[in-house]
Amino acid sequence: MSCLGQKPGRHPAGNELDNIKAQLSQKEKEKRDSQVIIDTLRDTLEERNATVESLQNALDKAEMLCSTLKKQMKYLEQQQDETKQAQEEARRLRNKIKAMERIELLLQSQRPEVEEMIRDMGVGQSAVEQLAVYCISLKKEYENLKEVRKASGELADKLRKDLVLSKNKFQTVCSELDQTKLELKSAQKDLQNADKEITSLRKKLTMLQETLNLTPVANETVNRLVLESPAPVEMLKPKLHRPPFHNAIDLDATFDVNTPPAQPSGSQHGRSKKLCLEKAHSPVQDIHRKMPKVSTQESQLSLGGQRCVGEPDEELARAFPVFIQKAILGQKQPKRTIAESCRSTDVVRTGFDGLGGRTKFIQPTDTAVIHPLPIKPKAKTKQRVRVKTVQPPSQTKLDTFLW
Length: 403
Prior knowledge:
With 403 residues, this protein is mainly alpha-helical.
């Protein structure tokens, strides 16, 4: 009954035996494969060992060859050193031979003279002593020549050192000269810029003076107010180029300069502010030479509206600058009419000026019209004192800026 589910005629133990046999055959096959691999590896290892041995032999041979070459190199270096020493010795010997040849040539050239000197000395003890003294003197002379040669060599070395120092100083001076040239170029550029600015200011001032065609008194007042008024903020001092090798330029620095003597003419101060804008050679100097010697009151000319007793002729007026010609010739008729009206019928009176003081004024015949009294020369002295006063740097005036 238990064997009904199995194949007929097949026992279970036989199946297990077949499986074991199959596994055993597979193991034997794997063993044979492993043996083949082991044999192959053994052959490869033997080949590698043979290769290593051959390489080891080659390395030993190469090391032996290197050691041999090192020994040969050392030997060659020794030979090279010996050759250099031999060459140096040969050079010294050659120099000695040349020196000996020169000495021999000198001796040969001096030999006849020496033999003749010995013959002149004669024979005997005295001749030998005299010859010995002569040889000693020659030796001393030779020592002296050696000392002189040594001193000459030292002097030559000293001169060489001085030459090197002089060359260094010369290079330093050349570099300083180059720096000075650069500074000079920058200063020239600054001067050109300042000249351009002065020229533009001159043009502007000329245009302003041509525009202000006022009466003499008003013109003088306007000129005084313009020249003595504080400079605008926009009109700063000229900014000069900073030197590349020094400190900044101090525009407020003062220098001791010899001031030329003052001109004796009384009208020089009245024209100083306007003529300072012209060139150094002003025609006003020629005017003083051409003007006749008359009294000071008669020779005074008004540049801004002051009293003018003697009227200049046209040739004398043309010697002034353009803006002065326009101020004199252009306003000639109004000046004459105002001066004549002030001179002819007016009467000088003294009264209150409306400011708490007393002053002189002109009382005309027509009491409805009152003409102002012309400014006296005393006001010019006050103006001269005011011009000479030094203003603080913080209150820069326009005339000092244009100066």
